Amino acid sequence: xxHKAASDEFIIDVSRYRTRAASSGGQPETLALVAxxxxxxxxxxxxxxxxxxxxLLMRVEEELALAGGDFMSEIDRHTGEAFAQTLDFFRELSDxxxxxxxxxxxxxxxxxxxxxxxxxLIGANKMGAAQIGQIMQRPVSTEDTRGLAVRLLALLGR
Length: 158
Hints:
Layout: E1 2-4, E2 10-12, E3 17-22, E4 30-35, H1 42-94, H2 100-137, H3 142-155
Antiparallel strand pairs: 1-2, 3-4
């Protein structure tokens, strides 16, 4: 319990608590305060709710960042595959026997279209990545996580 000392500072009676190291899978160990008698005061419950809400927000932000990176990598892979298919298509056109003048015109057009295809694909790639970045920057609603934190505490019997 916290109580007010004569000098206006708060003193926490640490004998009321014990610590518990919690580890899950490959996650780093975290330290959790647990009331020795298993009962939390309203203030302790509120602090725990706020801590749980912050931890939940950090976890959600971490997952969003990882998912965003995965989505951007998928866009990069698709961009490379689409460009390779475009090059294959142009190569197939060049393999057909044509009069020399037609082949010369086709080669000139192929060079222009190859660069244009690269520009378009890179432009679409950048737009997709920018849109993912904008979505990732949107704040996660604390109202949503606050309700979840309260439900999690209820499940834990706090």
